[in-house]
Amino acid sequence: MTPTPMVEIASMIAWINRYADRISEHQAWLTALDAEIGDADHGINMQRGFEEVRMRLAHEHVDDLGVLFKGIGMTLLSKVGGASGPLYGTLFLRMGMVAAGKQTLTPVEFANAVAAGVEGIRQRGSARPGDKTMVDALMPAIIALHQALDDGATLCAALQAAAAAAEAGMKATIPMQAYKGRASYLGPRSIGHQDPGATSAFLLVQSAAESLCAAEHNSD
Amino acid sequence: MKKLINNPAIVVEEALSGMAHAYPHLLRVNFCPNYIVRADAPRRGKVAVIAGGGSGHEPMHGGFVGLGMLDAACPGPIFTSPSPDQILAAAAAVDGGAGLLFIVKNYTGDVLNFAIAAEECQLAGVPVQTVLIHDDVAVEDSLYTAGRRGVGVTVLAEKICGAAAEAGASLEEVAAIGRKVSEQGRSMGVALTSCIVPAVGRPTFVLPDDEMEIGIGIHGEPGRRRAPLQSADAITDILATTIFDDLPFTRGSRVIALVNGMGGTPLMELYIIFRRLAELCEERDITISRNLIGNYITALEMAGCSLTLLAVDDELLHWWDAPVHTPALRW
Fold first, then answer.
1. Per-position pLDDT tens, chain B of length 331
2. CA dist., res. B292 & res. B232, Å (int)
3. Do B71 and B140 belong together in one domain?
4. Residue B64: which domain range?
5. B177 shares a domain with B35
6. Which of A103, A130, B97, B316 is 20 to 30 A removed from A140 (C-alpha atoms)?
7. CATH number of domain containing B275
8. Among residues A27, A29, A19, A34, which one has the least CA distance to residue A133?
9. Is residue B330 part of a domain?
10. Shared domain check, B223 and B127
């Protein structure tokens, strides 16, 4: 039996850098989605925040996953602004609390850390599934991730399942009426538009699948 | 995009730098993190009144820093809330030992960032009270929205709380006055054009020449409904009656009326709006005890206006009339 592959600092940094790439590629798209039901700044804000994260990761040596995640969270809090800064910041701060003092995580520990982060987002934003927010992409992703790992999937396969669930959750926000965030001011006029926060959240999960699958293949 | 700017990436910083040059006797500007504090901060023994929000609403909030109003303003990027570290740095610069009052407009981002900053202050032993401004009657106030947005009442709350704090009121007293203002004020706005976020370069929404957007916020976000453009009187009737219906501005009430331009509307048109508002108030036997007419809480170059009515008593009028000396409001 092969040992369970571990989630390492290098693969987490690869994930975040991959996400920074994805945000840059899709900046205009995220901003355009936000222009439809928000205030046209989501892509701009996320790009500003994650470029800062990318720069800091390139210059700082970290040997503790808790420190790594906390640093990412604090950077997002200070650089993203809006609602996304506190929400994505809270995701990584909570992951940092779970991973404190560790250099590696098992896939299940990693899933638990992400789940703690998503719970933090839910508490901070008091959003429920169906409110047309990032929670609508993240909750199904967490459920799929745990389910796949319980079924014995590799982390790569489990994250692919999570990304598929996040994508479905993102698309499911289109027919929803927004009950949280700036889009809720539109009432029924928010129906028919994909939520920008759910979209950037899907990209985060997709980036995790892409980068960790690459790491898994490299270690074979 | 036609704007008097140099580089979309640094419009906030260049505007702050301009304010620093214009008002050295009134305020100090800090960069990285960005905040504005009154020139004589910190004032020992005085409650520090702190507000903040996205930039693009000038003169709010930075234009209201000074004697009798704000101790500090935290300008975020255009239409984007300030971050907790920004708020904490501003708070540290103005903390006079009598506590901090945060005046927060009800937008998800502003609420979250100020909440995180308030938690940090409390952990450090600095008492903080938050007054949430949520006066926009265009938004249905229910469990199914983020709640009403904070708009015009913010200006009135900053003036009134600032006056009470200047006179030495305690944190609890200033907060109670702020909550009274928040409860007794209502606003609603209309847009004739959209606005252009410099980093985006295109109008946030497209509004045909013969249409208006009723119930807009202050970020270029679309409103509740779109309608054919009407006369100034008809528009004033729509905005004012919605406000009248929401709060018991009963016969005999006294109000402060704010007719606010969204940034791209001439003062002349605001006077035309005020003319009709005065008629409507007179018909209802509502006395406009004080008024404020001009661009105070804007959305970049958006054309349009918002109306705000605040029901007042002698106490609120007393604080309203107290001296104020800031870049944008002084008497």
1. 899 999 999 999 999 999 999 999 999 999 999 999 999 999 999 999 999 999 999 999 999 999 999 999 999 999 889 999 999 999 999 999 999 999 999 988 999 999 999 988 988 999 999 999 999 988 776 556 778 899 999 999 999 999 999 999 999 999 999 999 999 999 999 999 999 999 888 888 888 999 999 998 888 766 778 999 999 999 999 999 999 988 777 888 999 999 999 999 999 999 999 999 999 999 999 999 999 999 999 999 999 999 999 999 999 999 999 999 999 999 9
2. 18
3. yes
4. 11-183
5. yes
6. A103
7. 3.30.1180.20
8. A34
9. no
10. no
What are the residues whose beta carbons fall under 8 Å from the beta carbon of B260, sequence distance 6 or more?
Answer: B152, B155, B189, B270, B292, B294, B295, B296, B297, B298, B305, B306, B307, B308
CATH 3.30.1360.120 fits A7-214, yes or no: no
Q: Quote the number of domains for chain B.
A: 2
How many angstroms separate the CA atoms of A190 and B221, rounded?
Answer: 11
Find chain B residues with C-beta within 8 A of A83's C-beta. Answer: 81, 107-109, 112
Same-domain pairing of B196 and B138: no
Residues of B in Cβ contact (< 8 Å) with A93: none
Same domain, B173 and B307: no
Residues B153 and B19 in one domain: yes
CA–CA separation, B38 and B62 (whole Å) = 10
B144 to chain A, any CB pair closer than 8 A? The answer is yes
Count chain A–chain B contacts defined by CB atoms under 8 A.
109
Domain shared by B154 and B213, yes or no: no
ipTM score above 0.95: no
